[in-house]
Amino acid sequence: MCDLRRPAAGGMMDLAYVCEWEKWSKSTHCPSVPLACAWSCRNLIAFTMDLRSDDQDLTRMIHILDTEHPWDLHSIPSEHHEAITCLEWDQSGSRLLSADADGQIKCWSMADHLANSWESSVGSLVEGDPIVALSWLHNGVKLAFHDGSVHIVHRLSLQTMAVFYSSAAPRPVDEPAMKRPRTAGPAVHLKAMQLSWTSLALVGIDSHGKLSVLRLSPSMGHPLEVGLALRHLLFLLEYCMVTGYDWWDILLHVQPSMVQSLVEKLHEEYTRQTAALQQVLSTRILAMKASLCKLSPCTVTRVCDYHTKLFLIAISSTLKSLLRPHFLNTPDKSPGDRLTEICTKITDVDIDKVMINLKTEEFVL
């Protein structure tokens, strides 16, 4: 069950949505079991749970969640013999390291580029020694927390920038701990947390197995005029376009009124690039425009146009990849270029009538 909420204006940190799974409601959590959580550049979240029931033990399973479709959870039987203590994604977001309290380390890989299909082909064992931390080279930052609340502090001055309370009403940051009312029953606090790769969202898993996704303001809570906010979001979208990172967490901060301007400015920046770079980014910018246009009722009708164009580009690329020059000393124009010219002149839908106009001696199919 997911509760999805739109961004609140002006806040530094607010709740985006919460995921709770009713089928595990009868499970009991084990506070002594550590939890692990990791957020990939593809906006996939890997996490563990400290839940056990009569018929299943979830403490040794790895759960994969797509932030765009949080209701569709995929669970991997990890075959770890002890509780999982660490999870870490690699730079590409397609491989995941897991380690347990008995020293066993496994490397999981995406099978056929599917988020619901994983396999572990390699691993290692530090026999008898519990793994408390692991990391790939060049990994991102970490965040500390306490007392059932989330605190964001400045990396240099350690000044508190924002506070989020997960289960109680907001309290002043400087309120003494002794004045805070005691809660009945076991305390609910986050046991594992991870920032997204653009640091615009934060995921946490509490001691009852509930997963929460928080939005983090790109302006660090300071009000921005509309033009500056648009430039900031545009820069982050361009960053994701050239790095290959997924941009879902950026969309959390896009208001419907911003969509038209962002699409236009993205297109302007794209046309300023060299022809070679435009060719590399052609499909990615179409996908980005489509995801932006979904956010506004004024532009949602254009989503199908962008998806259709992506489909046509895929067909065109496939046809061109099938054409190969017959000789190494090919002319200036490749068979693919000539096919493009012919298709602009001939609108017949019969592929045989189009192909017959090509010079068959210059390519093999």
From TrEMBL:
Protein known as: Mediator of RNA polymerase II transcription subunit 16
* Top-rank taxon, per record: Eukaryota
Q: Where in the cell is it found?
A: Nucleus
Organism, as annotated: Homo sapiens (Human)
What gene name is given for the protein in this entry? MED16
Q: Name one Pfam family in it.
A: WD40
Please tell me where this protein is predominantly located. nucleus
| Classification via InterPro entries | MED16_bridge (IPR048616), Mediator_Med16 (IPR048338), WD40/YVTN_repeat-like_dom_sf (IPR015943), WD40_repeat_dom_sf (IPR036322), WD40_rpt (IPR001680)
Where would I find the Mediator of RNA polymerase II transcription subunit 16 central helical bridge domain in this sequence? 236-364
Q: How does it assemble?
A: Component of the Mediator complex, which is composed of MED1, MED4, MED6, MED7, MED8, MED9, MED10, MED11, MED12, MED13, MED13L, MED14, MED15, MED16, MED17, MED18, MED19, MED20, MED21, MED22, MED23, MED24, MED25, MED26, MED27, MED29, MED30, MED31, CCNC, CDK8 and CDC2L6/CDK11. The MED12, MED13, CCNC and CDK8 subunits form a distinct module termed the CDK8 module. Mediator containing the CDK8 module is less active than Mediator lacking this module in supporting transcriptional activation.
Cellular component GO terms, alphabetical = mediator complex; nucleoplasm
- Give the family from UniProt: Belongs to the Mediator complex subunit 16 family.
**Task of the protein:** Component of the Mediator complex, a coactivator involved in the regulated transcription of nearly all RNA polymerase II-dependent genes. Mediator functions as a bridge to convey information from gene-specific regulatory proteins to the basal RNA polymerase II transcription machinery. Mediator is recruited to promoters by direct interactions with regulatory proteins and serves as a scaffold for the assembly of a functional preinitiation complex with RNA polymerase II and the general transcription factors.
Classification from the root reads: Eukaryota, Metazoa, Chordata, Craniata, Vertebrata
Keyword line: Activator, Nucleus, Repeat, Transcription, Transcription regulation, WD repeat
Coiled-coil boundaries: none
